[in-house]
Write a structure and sequence with these properties.
about 475 residues; disordered N terminus; about 40% helix
Length: about 475
């Protein structure tokens, strides 16, 4: 920018002083003008100033919402004497503190019958039900009281292969209505003190039925008033009839039940000779197998693996007298000639969501958790076998405080062949009822073994027509 100053040389002295003053003032004004222009250029190059953003105060709706409180109603049996029910509820509560599990104990004697009645109609109060056996499961499926779980299983990404094929045996027309969380098998429990008193070697993990029968007779003492029973058989037909399925060639779905005969004859002979308590005595007294064994005068008891935890905990709490039954052991089930040791009967226990539940998603989450790895660990730590059984699970159980410390008892947990007591099939509930009816009649002496088996064959054949 150029500035030209014009001066008047013809003025006088006073005039000249005034001109000089004006020039100084004009120079200052021009300097200020130029400085302002330069600052304006700098400001334009830097761009406009951006105001600092002040964040909005968080709204009340932005705070995390507490999880909805949910109460699920669960049907089961024998809550007070079955240690894993409470253990599962407590462990799940730590994972889902917003969920409350309320249980209803329907008792074990007629659990599935009572449950079917409870679920009849549309007013069921249960969200989750425990499935005790396959015939009862079949009845509930046929009555449409259980929710198909396939879509929930798919959504949760559950790998059914981890159940070792068990779920295939309870799939109905391509649909699965339960997830197993417990898988039990039968063993022989024995009282070491009773064998020691007679100087008789303990049972082994490889006994034929002939050896088992001979051992029971050897250790027994039928003297009135001081009886020692070499063996004990609960009133269930599975405790006698199902010795016959261990060859892998037969099942209760057969049409000819002649393969039951040798085992009925063996057991009835033991009862007649005082080697085992008579069926009528066990039945009329409503004698539970646990009461029989814990009394201290039963040398061998064939029973499921579920009784392991009961033995451990009942001895620990003092419900059982250690002097009577505290020195106990386990061996594998006896087997027929030519059949591998470790062949045994199996049962599964599962959980289902009811079709009437209004909280199916939450109910299935509990079912999934109990039947999955977390629930499996809880089951093993209570001395029970989860459906997802592994070598690690067996190690947990055999390592529990109170489990027999001899090597044979640990080996008894290894199964070579597992046969379901009741495989799923059409009309299996009705078949089961027929076999139950005639079992009771044979054991009580109303029918001979041959008469009872003939009646079984006839009624099942008519049912299948």
């Amino acid at each position: 920018m150029g500035v030209i100053l014009y001066t008047n040389k013809s003025t006088g002295t006073k005039k000249g002083g005034e001109d000089r003053m004006k020039k100084k003032i004009l120079g200052l004004v021009l300097c200020l003008f130029m400085l302002t222009a330069m600052l304006g250029c700098v400001a334009q190059q830097a761009g406009p100033a951006t105001p600092t953003a002040v964040p909005d105060a968080p709204k009340a709706t932005d705070a995390p919402k507490p999880e909805e409180k949910i109460t699920l109603k669960w049907a089961l049996w024998d809550y007070e004497t079955t240690v894993y029910w409470g253990a599962l509820v407590d462990a799940y509560k730590k994972v889902k503190p917003n969920v409350t599990i309320e249980h209803t104990d329907l008792g074990s004697a007629d659990y599935m019958t009572v449950l079917a009645a409870e679920l009849s109609g549309t007013g069921s109060k249960f969200d989750i039900v425990t499935i005790k056996d396959v015939p009862g499961y079949a009845t509930l499926v046929q009555k449409n009281t259980l929710e198909p779980l396939d879509s929930y299983i798919s959504k949760a990404g559950i790998d059914l292969a981890k159940f070792g094929g068990i779920t295939n045996q309870v799939t109905v027309d391509g649909k699965l209505y339960e997830l197993p969380f417990r898988s039990d098998f039968w063993l022989v429990y024995y009282n070491k003190d009773l064998f020691d008193k007679k100087g008789i070697a303990y049972p082994t993990n490889d006994m034929t039925f002939e050896q088992y029968d001979a051992l029971a007779r050897q250790v027994a003492d039928p003297t009135f008033g001081s009886e020692v029973y070499g063996a004990h058989y609960h009133t269930w037909r599975s405790a006698v009839q199902l010795f016959g399925v261990l060859d892998g060639k037969h099942s209760i779905l057969d049409s000819d039940y002649g393969f039951f005969a040798p085992y009925y004859n063996m057991v009835l002979s033991q009862m007649k000779d005082g080697i085992a308590m008579a069926y009528t005595d066990v039945s009329t007294q409503s004698l539970h197998y646990s009461a029989a064994f814990s009394n201290g005068n039963v040398a061998m008891l064939n029973m499921g693996s579920w009784y392991i935890s009961t033995m451990i905990n009942s001895l620990k709490k003092g419900d059982y007298d250690k002097e009577l039954c505290g020195n106990w052991g386990l061996v594998k089930y006896p087997h027929a000639e030519g059949v591998a040791a470790g062949s045994t009967l199996g049962t599964i226990t599962g959980l289902s969501v009811t079709s009437a539940s209004k909280q199916k998603e939450a109910a299935f989450d509990f079912v999934n958790w109990v039947s999955g790895p977390e629930g499996a660990e809880v089951m093993a730590n209570t001395g029970n076998f989860p459906a997802m059984s592994t070598e690690g699970v067996r190690a947990i159980i055999s390592g529990l405080e109170g489990f027999p410390k001899d090597a044979e008892s640990a080996k008894a947990l290894e199964v070579s062949n597992l046969y379901l007591e009741v495989p799923y099939a059409d009309k299996v509930s009705e078949i089961n009822a027929i076999l139950d009816t005639y079992h009771k009649m044979i054991m009580s002496g109303e029918l001979t073994v041959d008469e009872g088996i003939k009646s079984m064959n006839k009624d099942v054949a008519e049912l299948k027509k």
